[in-house]
Specification:
CATH architecture of the largest domain in chain B: 3-Layer(aba) Sandwich
Order of helices and strands of chain A: HHHHHHHHHHHH
Strand content of chain A: under 5%
Structural class of chain B: alpha/beta
CATH superfamily of the largest domain in chain A: MetI-like
CATH superfamily of the largest domain in chain B: P-loop containing nucleotide triphosphate hydrolases
Strand content of chain B: 15-25%
Number of domains of chain A: 2
Number of strands of chain B: 10
Number of helices of chain B: 10
Number of domains of chain B: 2
Radius of gyration of chain A: 23 Å
Structural class of chain A: mainly alpha
Distance between the termini of chain A: 21 Å
Mean pLDDT of chain A: 88
Largest interface: A-B, 23 and 24 residues
Mean pLDDT of chain B: 85
Oligomer: heterodimer
Number of strands of chain A: 0
Largest sheet of chain B: 6 strands, mixed
Radius of gyration of chain B: 19 Å
Order of helices and strands of chain B: HHHEEEHEEEHHHEHEHEEH
Number of helices of chain A: 12
Chain lengths: ~270, ~290
């Protein structure tokens, strides 16, 4: 009688490993560890590359320790994370608001969709010179650029999901006396929760992308600055350090958002 | 809303007394007076662009009566039902419920759709609660929902999600949701059409139970002649008007026949009288009865 639930089918790791606590994490760590091993082999053991081309893993670690001891590493990471979170937050909230407006109101859609579509067509980096001209090279212009990057994935996800909410459910809601805000919160928003989260995760990835873009162009702090600075001074070890930090922190923020998504999906989907 | 009286268990005699004089009692016991309302369709029609689907439908539904709407596929059965429920404002003519024109999404009516249309993220209990009218106290609402869940036999499954129950159960939940507001007119749009034959028969019995207890007027759209014969007091057959010349009759379906079904429910499915009616109805639907 009861149909099978979908929840169990989401994880694809073999059942036996799933039962071990942390089994999935351990499996996922295999490939990074192998890569690390290969990296160590070709540099430190076989010496195939010079340390300017590709420094050994321990040199990268040493560069990190050195930066940390000078008190700079934490600052670079903190300022970058702050910019991403601020820009992502602002962009996501605006994306939700504008996406809901255009997704629900035919008038707003007709009026604004062509404009927003045109703005979306502008490669976001094209805004950089204008933003610097208008806002200077300080935090405002960087956070704005990141917000632009985060806005469009959220906007697109919310907008198209709201336009495709099952019209039968909406009609049923109306038939039972729901309209306006009550209809929105009871039927339409819950129905789009899954798409909103995929939009948010895409937006977070975009936010990191735009962070590096903003910091590469004009900054005196942050992981993007570490990248350009290391390039100019020939410090490949620091360059790799920045890349690895971006990968790790980006993955952590995505995983945190994924946890929230999971909770939301068990409630709403 | 008066929740003190177990409204679902109102005996038939009392119900007819109420509906006989609805006007006097509406002020004091609005809730009980709403339970079965007359519906008057006057020259109801519907055009979609250039195409006329439905025209000149004149029918009066008595309070507490079950009327089945039969007709070939695409003849406007659902369109007619949607007009009565205020789900479609684009129709011609007038629909009066208890003498007053139908309003958009009229709260004197409730619709059971062909699909259950339950919110997948809500438990069965909270889906049924969606049908409760506004302004009911939390405790009274909960009591009423429990009562409805028992009525449709879903008390044990109340905390499950729609995807965790069968299609028949989902349809029962949908029926309970429709009954929550104590509709004066219950509109059912092929509610059992997607169910297997056995579940369908059980649902028909359930509907008769519900009707016996609530006394609501029922307009039931169906394509199943046997279902109509089993459930309805009267059957409205939509199609060509027999009084018109078939060759230059205007486009669109209208009242082809309106006939009384003899006998008290539940009816003997094998009765000879019903078999004759069945043949006539099938012929009216353009099906050769001998083949069935």
């Amino acid at each position: 009688m009861a149909e099978t639930t979908r929840e169990q089918n989401q994880e694809c790791a073999p059942a036996r490993i799933r039962r071990v606590p942390g089994g999935r994490v351990a499996l996922g760590a295999i490939v990074p560890l192998v890569l690390l091993l290969v990296w160590w082999l070709v540099t430190d053991i076989l010496g195939l590359f010079s340390s300017v081309q590709l420094p050994a893993p321990q040199e990268v670690v040493a560069a990190g320790v050195e930066l940390h001891e000078r008190g700079e590493l934490g600052q670079h990471v903190a300022i970058s994370v702050q910019r991403v979170l601020l820009g992502f937050g602002i962009g996501a909230v605006l994306g939700l608001a504008v996406g809901s407006l255009l997704g629900l109101s035919r008038i707003a859609d007709t009026l604004l969709q062509p404009t927003i579509g045109a703005f979306r067509a502008v490669p976001s980096l094209a805004w950089v010179p204008l933003l610097i001209l208008w806002m200077g090279i300080y935090e405002d212009s960087k956070v704005t650029l990141i917000a632009i990057g985060a806005f469009f994935p959220v906007f697109t996800a919310v907008y198209s999901a709201l336009r495709h909410v099952d019209p039968q459910l909406v009609e049923a809601g109306r038939a039972f006396g729901l309209h306006g805000v009550r209809l929105l919160t009871t039927v339409q928003l819950p129905a789009v929760v899954p798409s909103v989260f995929s939009g948010l995760r895409l937006a977070l990835a975009q936010a990191w992308l735009f962070l590096v873009a903003a910091e590469l162009i004009a900054s005196s702090m942050g992981l993007g600055f570490v990248l350009t600075d290391s390039q100019n001074t020939g410090r490949t070890d620091r360059l790799l350090l920045a890349i690895i930090l971006l990968a790790v922190i980006g993955k952590i923020t995505d995983a945190l958002l994924g946890l929230v998504e999971r909770r939301a999906l068990t409630t709403w989907a | 809303m008066t929740t003190s009286a177990p409204a679902l268990a109102t005996p038939r005699a009392e119900r007819t007394a109420e509906t006989a004089a609805p006007a006097d009692r509406r002020g004091t016991t609005a809730e009980s007076a709403r339970r079965s309302l007359p519906v008057d369709l006057q020259a109801v029609g519907r055009r979609f662009g250039e195409r006329t689907v439905l025209r000149d439908v004149d029918v009066a539904l008595h309070p507490g009566e079950v009327v089945a709407v039969l007709g070939a596929s695409g003849c406007g059965k659902s369109t007619l039902l949607r007009a009565v429920g205020g789900l479609d404002a684009g129709h011609d003519g007038q629909v009066l419920i208890d003498g007053a024109p139908v309003k958009p999404f009229d709260e004197r009516t409730a619709v059971g759709f062909q699909e259950p249309r339950l919110l997948p993220w809500r438990s069965i209990r909270r889906n049924v609660a969606l049908g409760m009218p506004r302004g009911v106290s939390r405790a009274a609402g909960r009591e009423r929902v429990d009562e409805l869940l028992r009525l449709v036999g879903l008390a044990e499954r109340a905390e499950l999600r729609p995807r965790e129950i069968s299609g028949g159960m989902a349809q029962r939940a949908s029926l309970a949701r429709a009954l929550a507001r104590r509709p004066g007119v219950l509109l059912l749009d092929e509610p059992f059409g997607a169910l297997d034959a056995l579940t369908r028969l059980k649902m028909q019995d359930l509907l008769l139970d519900v009707h016996a207890q609530t006394g609501t007027t029922v307009l039931l759209v169906t394509h199943d002649v046997d279902e109509a014969l089993q459930l309805a007091d009267r059957i409205l057959l939509l199609g060509a008007d027999p009084a018109e010349d078939a060759d230059d009759a205007p486009e669109g379906a209208t009242v082809s026949r309106l006939l009384e079904v003899p006998g008290e429910r539940p009816r003997d499915r094998a009765s000879a009288e019903l078999a004759t009616l069945r043949g006539e109805l099938l012929a009216g639907l353009g099906v050769d009865a001998h083949e069935h």
